[in-house]
TrEMBL record:
GO terms for molecular function: acid phosphatase activity. This is Histidine phosphatase superfamily. The keyword Lyase does not apply. SUPFAM superfamilies: Phosphoglycerate mutase-like. Transmembrane segments: none annotated. It comes from Phakopsora pachyrhizi (Asian soybean rust disease fungus). The lineage of its organism: Eukaryota, Fungi, Dikarya, Basidiomycota, Pucciniomycotina. The keyword Transmembrane does not apply. Pfam families: His_Phos_2 (PF00328). InterPro entries: Acid_Pase_AS, His_Pase_clade-2, His_PPase_superfam.
């Protein structure tokens, strides 16, 4: 789903002062990946070939032109990323302006991006949005550090785990009545299968974010079917990348070691980690500085779900693979990792005695925000 927030950001108490901010952010809203793109196209072709046998409610598909910009950011995704940079500066302006280089110039946040075009674009647009809020017209020379997504590289956590049984069971159960409706009434002779129907439901989402209005494909399906569709992807992330899969959720451990090093200024958290940390990069001050005040990383939803699990903020839940979707479940993917979602960790120093400025009465606190 496109970016949306829950509640309003609250500034730190007056007795506290922010001294470090670390954020990881998903790329902005995008077109479907090439694999999903191909599946959607096959589904549309099956429907278009039956001609006049198509139900009146689906006639718009005959003239529908499908986009093919694999994985690129849609215009909404570009706006989301740019605005997140503006908001980051507005929220942390004072801290950014205190982060000075040796020659007295203000540092931008230290930016890293995983090596996908849509993620790099999101990072670049974030940077532009942030810079546009500066009153200074000077040129900023800081570059975005690109992290490889090659599975052979140590820090990469973009690996696939084929734990599809859980979502596969639910797919067959919730798609069956929809499939029957298509093949017996809406698109007789199209011979759609489960993946075809799932692809059409995904098209509703991608078409909507591309056009920035609700797609006609959304109206084909009923409210309960959308609830079941949402649960399908909750099962996918929970058992494939989240806390429901011990192997996959461990992929966030490398980021956890980096987070601890950045919060404490202690490189030993990195040196002691032999899981996913790239020691060549992270033990270099140029590629992994610890003396900066703001850090922003850009990544994918799968990696962020693994990080949530490693941090212990993703709850262990009973998600029955045969349904029905629990109405009181905490983990809903569309709410946890919408496009351009972010996990933000703030470190602050707080005075215990509000009337004292004595440094020996300062204590450190952390605040963690999700999608804020």
């Amino acid at each position: 789903s496109p970016f949306h927030r829950f509640g309003n950001y609250k500034r730190q108490p007056s007795s506290c002062e922010l001294d470090r901010v670390i954020q990881i952010q998903r790329h902005g809203s995008r077109y479907p990946t090439s694999r999903v793109n191909d599946k959607i196209q096959r589904s549309l072709n099956k429907i278009k070939k039956i001609g006049d046998r198509l139900d009146k409610s689906l006639e718009f598909i005959k003239s529908y032109r499908f986009f093919s910009k694999d994985s690129d950011l849609v215009e909404l995704g570009r706006k989301e990323s740019y605005l997140s940079g503006e908001e980051f500066y507005s929220r942390y302006r004072d801290l950014i302006n205190k982060d000075l280089s040796d020659n007295g110039l203000v540092h931008l946040p230290f930016l890293r991006s995983s090596q996908s075009d849509r993620v790099i674009q999101s990072a670049e647009l974030f940077k532009i949005g942030l810079i546009d809020r500066f009153k200074s017209q000077r040129n900023f020379e800081e570059k975005i550090l690109i992290i490889s997504e090659d599975p052979k590289d140590a820090y990469n956590s973009k690996e696939e785990y084929e734990y599809d049984d859980e979502k596969g069971v639910w797919l067959k159960l919730f798609i069956r009545p929809i499939l029957k409706r298509f093949n017996e009434h809406l698109a007789v002779g199209s011979d759609l299968n489960e993946i075809d129907v799932l692809s059409l439901m995904q098209l509703c989402l991608f078409d909507s974010v591309a056009k920035e209005e609700q797609s006609k494909f959304c109206d084909i399906f009923h409210e309960e079917e959308w609830i079941n569709f949402e649960y399908y992807f909750d099962l996918d992330k929970y058992f494939k990348h989240g806390i429901g899969n011990e192997i996959a959720s461990s992929q966030g451990v490398g980021y956890l070691a980096e987070l601890l090093s950045r919060l404490t200024g202690d490189i030993d958290w990195i040196r002691r980690d032999f899981t996913k940390v790239n020691h060549t990069l992270d033990e270099s001050e140029d590629y992994f500085p610890l003396n900066r005040k703001t850090f922003v990383d850009f990544s994918h939803d799968n990696q962020m779900v693994s990080i949530f699990s490693s941090l212990g903020i993703q709850p262990i839940e009973d998600l029955p693979i045969e349904g029905p979707p629990p109405t009181n479940r905490s983990f809903v993917v569309a709410q946890w990792v919408p496009f351009a979602s972010r996990l933000t960790v703030e470190r602050m120093k707080c005075r215990q005695n509000h009337h004292s400025n004595s440094s020996d009465q300062l204590e450190l606190y952390l605040r963690i925000f999700l999608v804020s």
